[in-house]
Task: inverse folding
């Protein structure tokens, strides 16, 4: 029998091995170790189609399975590309490479105990790869019997769920919240006149709903599908999920999809969890000039200059993908700015602004995260000023339902937004000498609907002649950019330690210890990404 041969393969776009030691003795010892450390064995794949025999690799107590053969049994396929491999089944794709324990299905991750391997020209993976992929793609449950050497694939037994849908119009955005009695996989599809939510689990039949809403006409329920009828096809949507209880949320807006700005750093084939994409929003633009200083400095120009410098600093220091909501003097609506962050599945959203006040001598910086109620009168006035280019910054009416729905999209990330705002304010205080006005909360419309930790930064008072002059000074701009970049780096490091993808550093500062002016809700589930439409 020919023993399997392990082939070095860079995978994931990494550099290939640069040096081979031409020592015959060492090579022979290494090959002999591989031969004794692993062996081909027979195993059975048991599915609804019957039993099939395959060969697996046994490495000590670990068993590796040939991806292509197992996929072929259930009707799937495997292809390679420059960044690794893609497997598909029932219209669902999973991406993976041999240099990572994580495979990616859309916005979800499948974790394996070890990375895939290339052995004798074939791709082998631990059985947990199939457990995650088959559950997401076809609802199959996967188990591995180590004694009997049986990989069993069986249809999942799914309970019937109850579904309840609420629709409300908030400042020109229609929010649809589908609450289910249990968790299930789902996809969202667009058809003429409809959005379709297709569920892996069946739902109990509910009466169709007629909706009085500018964008939505009715909600219809079938065994595994919820149909959302639209009054017009000129509708764009962002979608995401919330937990405890499980909810699927769609944010609909009238009009065509917003223009997506150019990405300055290419996106990798897939991302491990952590802070990988940051969207920076230069406040105002186009005819919305923002505040104007006594010397004529316009807020829209200053925020764009500082945002460009910040994007370059973050890319250079963190190697993250950075996207600007505008790259020139153009008008981008507040709704579009958040939609851009959601469409790029950003991990952080920073909106850059300058403050203004009728109070002579007002000065200092402050950092905000979202709340329905402002933490003080000055915060409320700041939000009203920034929201002035859009309709009402609060939902019309004051029913409990509207208030609950208003908070739904935000509460998942408020704890992280508070941490982010806190560390940004701390770094700005220390690096620039600008008086700290603290971390505050206010209903800024540009933060509404953001499905990631988000903060709005007021870097100083453009209405103050001294601060207007400082804001135009290149050295001051560099100092404040460096401070924000340091803050984001601190937050990124601490966040990735907390979710377990980075090792803690003994000297790393711990965030979230200081009190903010208004305590946020309970901590959110760590987010690598959210489903989108």
Result:
């Amino acid at each position: 029998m020919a023993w399997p041969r392990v082939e070095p393969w860079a995978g994931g776009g990494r550099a290939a091995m640069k040096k081979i030691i031409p020592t015959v003795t060492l090579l022979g010892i290494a090959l002999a170790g591989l031969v004794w450390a692993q062996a081909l064995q027979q195993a059975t794949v048991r599915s609804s189609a019957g039993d099939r025999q395959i060969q697996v690799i046994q490495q000590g107590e670990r068993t590796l399975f040939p991806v292509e053969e197992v996929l072929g049994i259930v009707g799937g396929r495997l292809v390679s590309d420059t960044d690794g491999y893609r497997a598909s089944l029932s219209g669902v794709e999973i991406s993976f490479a041999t240099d990572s324990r994580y495979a990616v299905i859309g916005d979800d991750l499948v974790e394996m105990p070890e990375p895939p391997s290339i052995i004798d020209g074939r791709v082998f993976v631990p059985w947990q790869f199939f457990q995650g992929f088959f559950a997401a793609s076809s609802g199959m449950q996967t188990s591995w019997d180590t004694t009997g050497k049986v990989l069993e694939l069986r249809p999942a037994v799914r309970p019937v769920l109850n579904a309840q849908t609420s629709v409300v119009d908030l400042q020109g955005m229609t929010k649809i919240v589908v609450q289910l009695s249990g968790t299930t996989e789902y996809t969202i599809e667009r058809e003429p006149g409809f959005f379709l939510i297709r569920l892996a689990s069946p739902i109990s039949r509910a009466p169709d709903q007629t909706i009085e809403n500018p964008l939505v006409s009715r909600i219809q329920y079938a065994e595994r599908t919820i149909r959302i009828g639209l009054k017009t096809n000129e509708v764009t949507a962002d979608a995401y999920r919330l937990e405890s209880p499980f909810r699927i949320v769609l944010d609909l807006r009238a009009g065509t999809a917003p223009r997506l700005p150019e990405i300055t750093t290419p996106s990798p084939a897939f991302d491990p969890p952590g802070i990988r994409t940051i969207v920076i929003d230069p406040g105002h633009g186009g005819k919305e000039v923002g505040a104007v200083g006594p010397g004529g400095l316009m807020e829209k120009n200053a925020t764009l200059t500082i945002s460009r410098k910040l994007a370059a600093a973050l890319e250079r220091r963190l190697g993250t993908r950075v996207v600007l909501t505008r790259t020139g003097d153009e008008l981008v609506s507040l709704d579009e700015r958040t939609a851009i962050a959601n469409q790029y599945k950003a991990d952080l959203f920073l909106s850059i602004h300058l403050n203004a006040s009728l109070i002579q001598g007002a000065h200092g910086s402050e950092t905000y995260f979202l709340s329905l109620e402002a933490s003080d009168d000055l915060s409320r006035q700041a939000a009203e000023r920034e929201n002035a280019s859009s309709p009402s910054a609060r939902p019309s009416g004051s029913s409990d339902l509207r208030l609950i729905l208003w908070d739904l999209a935000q509460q998942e990330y408020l704890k992280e937004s508070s941490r982010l705002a806190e560390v940004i304010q701390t770094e700005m205080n220390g690096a620039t000498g600008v008086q700290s006005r603290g971390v505050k909360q206010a209903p800024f419309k540009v933060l509404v609907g953001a499905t990631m930790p988000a903060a709005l930064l007021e870097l100083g008072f453009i209405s103050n002649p001294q601060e207007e002059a400082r804001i135009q000074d290149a050295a001051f701009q560099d100092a404040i950019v460096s401070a924000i970049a340091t803050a984001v780096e601190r937050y990124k490091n601490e966040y990735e330690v907390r979710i377990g993808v980075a090792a803690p550093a003994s000297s790393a500062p711990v965030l979230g210890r200081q009190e903010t002016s208004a305590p946020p809700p309970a901590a959110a589930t760590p987010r690598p990404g959210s489903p989108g439409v």
DSSP finds ten helices and 27 strands in the chain.
